[in-house]
Amino acid sequence: MNVKLRVLSIGVLFFAGHALNAQRANRDTATKTKEIQEVVLIGGIKLDPAQKVGAYNVVSKANFESTPFSSVDEVLNGRVAGLNFSSASGDPGSSNMVTIRGVSSLLGTPNPLYVIDGVIVGKGSDNASLMESWNPLSAIDPNAIENVSVLKDASATALYGSRGANGVILITTKKGKYNQKTRFEFSTETGTQDRAFDKMELMSSDEYIKYGGILMWNSQDLLGQTFSTLQEATDFFLSEPTYEGNYDGTTNTDWVKAVNRTSSVVNTYNFSASGGGENTSFRIGGTYYNNSPLIKTSNFDRISVNTAVDHKASDKLKFGVNLNYSNIKRQTYFGGRASANPVTSSIMISPLRPIYLENGDYNQDLGEGSPTPGFNPVSILDETSQKSTINTIIGSANMDYQFIKNFYFNSLYGMQAQFMTERQNVLAGHPVYTIMTDTQGFLGDFRTTIFDWNWSNTLGYRNIFNGRHNVQAFLGMEYQDHTYNNFQAITFTQNDPRPYFGFSDEQFASNTDQQWRQISYFGRLNYTLDSKYTISGQLRRDGNSTLGENKWGSFWSLGGSWNVMNESFMPDAFSSLTLRASYGVLGNIPYADQWYSQYNQYATLVYDSNIGWGPYGGNGFIASAGNRNLSWEESAHLDVGADFGILNERLKFTLDYYDKLTDKAIFRSYPAVETGGPTFFYDNVGAIRNRGFEVVVDAVPVRTENFSWNINANGSYGKSRIEKLNVDLVTFEGETSDGSNELVAFAPGKLFGEYYTWLWAGVAQTDDAANGISAGDGIWYTDGSRTTVTNDKTQAEKVWMGKNAFPTYNVGLTNSFDYKNFTLSFMLSGQFDFYVQNGVHSYTIHDGRFATRNQITDALYNSWTDAPGAENFSADNPKAVIGNPRSSRLESSRFLNKGDHIRLKEARIAYSFGDTFKDATGINNLTIYARGTNLLTYVFDKDLNYDPESTSNSWSALGKGRYWYASPVVRTVSFGIQIGF
User: Fold this and answer.
1) What is the distance of C-alpha 348 from the center of its chain?
2) Distance (Å, whole) CA 920 – CA 927
3) Which of 256, 485, 552, 617 has the greatest number of CB atoms lying within 10 Å of its CB?
4) Model-level pTM?
5) pLDDT band at 602 (very low <50, low <70, confident <90, very high)
6) Could you give the C-alpha distances from 456 to 411, 413, 418, 483, in angstroms and in order?
7) 614 Cβ partners below 8 Å, 6+ apart?
């Protein structure tokens, strides 16, 4: 649960286990390939690429350098087989949703665990108090990243125990190299951004007036009026004060343009120095990233500094330190379903209403159905502010000591500290909170401190016997501690525009302190015979404070691989072939990484009041019944895969099949109604199964001295299904603004989050007196048989749609062409077989519910009417009638769209100056390039007018696939330069 103050109203650049750098010059150097493949887990434990057992991918640094994106997870979008990405907003710093091989829990964020240089930093879930959302991963500078490893199966993720069930993303930052003279690198990129995909065309003033006349004509009976011509109906619309009687005859306001910049600008500057001597290596780097997003007054400004020092004290003792610091200044705006959200209001407000009155004041008369005066979106942007400062420190210190031959001890301490200040200032005249008056403003100041640390110690043994038996054994323990402290002060009685509480009449303060801990013991044993046969087993025992009386669980995995290439019978057609399989059972606690959910085991009491504590009336009640029997979710993972190459590795394949069953899934358990108190508590009541396939192909069709063509492609198939649940049906209607989703439900045997709603049958073409249906009525099928229709929604049953918001198929295709010093690459991504929904559908086409709100042009051109001169009897939308008495605008399958799409995710052209230039100048690298991201999007559903990669939040899988009043995903065109000397 996120506690926030709210308004009340395709392609990859790698294949599995093999990172492919689109800019690298030498693609055949095996040592380099092995270097970027190597994945370091806890306590110095490594995944050996030569004896690959688990399923994992590595994404190289070239994909993160000088990127226009503000966070790491955005860069991964489209570059990993089985990884699906969606964004809550195009506003930089907003939270994102990332799933790896589907959704494994009924609660909490489906995001994977992120680990940076051994520091466990959580799952990137939103932890903001006032901001619409906040993505903690935005604090990490992508330019500082050496590579990112995406771990998928039990063998790869088991060492992360309870926090790795959704997959693990390991981020390794850049370091210096021993025995290398100091190198300096500088890069900069400047780009412009606009909407990547937005076909939501709103009516102009002329179209809006035509629609108003048609609406009046259609509503004559309700109005008690009789019109002989459409012009009479239009004149009535423009003369009645209830409607648009105050229209001045000339105004044509483009409210979307009024609140948006024509284009946003993003700038990145990066500088680093690295090198090393015989015993010490170092790197220090800094980046400045600034983005002025689409919504006016919004801004994202980040300064980052990162350092790494490694030292060899002796042949047996090594240690190192990594430190990353960032300072972010961010200005955002009201979001979600807030009436003060400029994205929402700019869509709805009549184009006949001016922004300003003749005297220069803001026009606050925004029409019937509009909020209280004070919600002019331009005035909201000008006279309210949401400013945040986030300081983040992520650091780790590690030591590796060989105290006896073949015996090693590794210790790593990591910490993350985040200090967040969020301040919201609302001037008088904008009563965005229901408790406010028109004459006083609001001031809120929220201070959050989050401190996480983990300490792991590992004892390792590595030896090779008789040149045949390679044995690696590890034993270790890990301790994690996580604290959250939030202090907030607010006032609704601000008397001065200056943001100081001294100018207010009353102030209210509160605080929240939370903590949870985990202690773990783990072991891993690897055995390889003759470099052919590998067995890897691991065992982990975790104890977690957020569970009930039984806080401990034991989890394990077992995997094996066969390097068939080392067999004498291997055909010459193959240049590589490895078969592998793994199985394991991992623990999971779906809510542990999200604050305000750490105490589900306890019964909790809450004092409820409109304002706060003290003399104000309220009542106490049991907020949660608690459950002392809460125990671990258990996820059983099966992975079977193969990696092989032919034609001297000119054509490579990676294939994976996975089957993951999460049992004892935590979800709501419903007590008997007569017991009173809370309506539910959390218990281990469900099971979810994820099954799928992944295939990755790397091909080199052409390779000559001056020209090469590389193709990298991936595809995945996967579905998440609820196998078991304690009740027959769970719906999510009208709960909390972000946690509700009227169109989806949970039920045994159904897809996770499958759409369950009324089945729209379209528009009645003729009168059906026997059933009370008139031509132009919106109609629904009465049930799933689709044999009978009704215009009374209450007489229809909800129907399972057989689809959810998670794509069944994800594909990607990257082509890279190198000719001498020129490089051209482009990446296509595609997602297929899923539905998305428009969370603003009841406003963008409301069938007459709000007579003075604007809509999309379909409301005019594609709605049934018999108005003379505007007749339309073959429309897709029903007859618009004032008030929409049959509620056709509300939820049904009418507002579901196929999300299938193909996107030109990235295109890049670069020129690197050659050796002659380098010799003459002493510069060892000079590259200039142009790049575009999200350049083109093709959708297969002609009615889809919003971005198909949308999600409403990152902390609940229920938000997936829902466009939710957010700044859209952006398209970027940028130019950059890289210099090294």
Assistant:
1) 26
2) 16
3) 256
4) 0.89
5) confident
6) 6, 7, 21, 18
7) none
